[in-house]
Amino acid sequence: MNAHPQLELRHLRCLVTIVDTGSFTDAAIELGVSQAAVSRTLLALEGILGVRLLHRTSRTLTPSTAGVEVLARARHLLAETDELVRQATTGHTRLRVGHAWSAMGRHTTEFQRRWHERYPDVELHLIRHNAPTAGLAEGLCDLAVLRTAIDTRRYAHALVGHEPRCLALASDDPWTKRRSIRLEEIRRRTLVVDRRTGTTTLDLWPEGIRPTVEYTHDIDDWLAAIATGRCVGITPQATATQYRRDGITYRPLRDADPVPVQLIWRRHDPHPATHAAVALLSDLYREDA
Hints:
The chain is α/β, with parallel strands linked by helices. The protein has helices at about 10-20, 25-30, 35-50, 65-90, 110-120, 220-225, 235-240, 275-289, and strands spanning about 55, 60-65, 95-100, 125-130, 145, 155-165, 165-170, 190-195, 210-215, 235, 250, 260-265. It is elongated and about 90 Å long.
């Protein structure tokens, strides 16, 4: 019993090349095979699909009605395949680092500069994605900078540094006249918290003396709420560096624990440049200490 012939990419590429070059002879030259091989491949494709794909005369070569449809699908599939190959072969020459809010904070520019100097063959891309893993779970990045809790069962991780917390206020808030604010004082204010990717939780205060909370889901909404003067926000120092906005002032928070900054990556599929990124960012935070 003969196995049913399988459709292969070479069949589709042959069809497209015949149509694009306008002849079997030119298609053979383009594909680097004999004219007889081109004819056999096309006949095999027509046999697999059970339809005539090209009308051929001694002078003309045109797609049949079915051929027009198959040709369109073939072009799409071949383009997708070429893109897949391109991504697979260039993946290690590009490092995508995801972040939800503030990238590497005050170290962002220096990280980019040193990376370019040390690893010019690995192009660095910073990707902002407002999700708990900053795009890693979605496949948008190779590494992610996180300042929130990590699923250590699913992701490998490295602590690269800590950032002090600060208070974000409306610029006309009376507290902006002060050099710093105590954590205990904030319980008398309304606190705005990003429920999805924010670093602030009510666990900063004992039960019974916690502030009133409003929730947002994005940095821009968080800043807009603070700018009204209705709310204040607690955030790592990185936010103050990356989001300098009219109407927003940041002040140090005196007695709050610092925020850990970690890099995470897929445990079973690390990018080859992962440890280089960890080492560089750790050095930058260490220089800052």
